[in-house]
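Board notes (copied after class):
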Amino acid sequence: MVEDRITDGRRIAELLSSEVDGREDGELASFAVTNADRDVEPTADGARAYDITRRDERLARVFIHDDRAHLEFEAGQDAAAEAAADADLRVRPKATRPPRTLVFVESGAEVKRATDVLQTVSRALRRADR
């Protein structure tokens, strides 16, 4: 049996949004999808679709491309880079001020791994807050 692989950026972002907003257990309970742009259209560079907040602070922004989505981490960049690499997700730094970490989600199957990255970043930030 052949299974379809979801590689549509908009659909990947929708799946990620559902995972973040739909979970009320563990680390994801403190996350929310905010500032969603319901009319966003994918672009080659990525168009901002929504933000992911943790306890009312923006943790990352989600961008959609035609064939993938990416998260742009504003907090916990080092933890995001390490967790994404460990999860076999493509990751790269973004040379801006302040710096950002980009984590690419290139299929629907990678959404669970992306939520694992969010949870790892949340735990790292919680430890840093102590």
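Comment from the instructor: The chain has a mean pLDDT of 90. The first helix runs from residue 9 to 22.
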